[in-house]
Design brief:
single chain, 7 helices, 63% helix, 0% strand, disordered C terminus
């Protein structure tokens, strides 16, 4: 399995996790047993990094996603932002540019072109260490817990 395939498997599982929650190791075991999905060490490590550091990652997303709170982001985009930031922060053997490019390609495949452009901008700003002025940042939002219902009321 290539790293690209492993990253995509991690994305699928983390997307599912964003709705169902639970222990990530149990989610992996269920996927392997029930759907015969293969996970290698790279995909397992990515999943573990995201779930272990989800609050920290969501805070970073909030600081770099102009005018968007974590709760308003499409789940595909949010999952890919989480995955890429976890990869940049915790996987030293993956170049930042590769992490961003892979996330953008997955977003083009499973999201929209606009989502991919937004994701690229947020990840680029994060990689460059660009901090947004406080007045441009939405107030910090609690992380979306798996299974939470997200209201879009008033956001339209």
């Amino acid at each position: 399995m290539t790293r690209r395939d492993a990253r995509e498997q991690a994305f699928f599982l983390l997307f599912e996790y964003s709705f169902t929650g639970g222990m990530i190791d149990e989610r992996i075991a269920l996927a392997e047993q029930q759907r015969e999905v293969l996970f290698n060490d790279f995909s397992r490590t990515l999943c573990a990094c995201v779930t272990e550091h989800i609050e920290e990652i969501d805070a970073k997303i909030s600081r770099h996603a102009t005018r968007w709170s974590v709760g308003r982001l499409p789940r595909v985009t949010l999952t890919l932002l989480r995955l890429s930031i976890a990869e940049m922060d915790h996987m030293e053997d993956v170049p930042v540019s590769v992490s961003i490019n892979e996330a953008v390609e997955l977003c083009k495949r499973y999201g929209t072109e606009e989502d991919a452009s937004f994701l690229n901008g947020v990840l680029g700003a994060y990689a460059r260490g660009v901090e947004l002025p406080v007045e441009r940042i939405d107030p910090p939002q609690p992380p979306i817990a798996p299974g939470d219902q997200v209201s879009l009321e008033g956001d339209i």
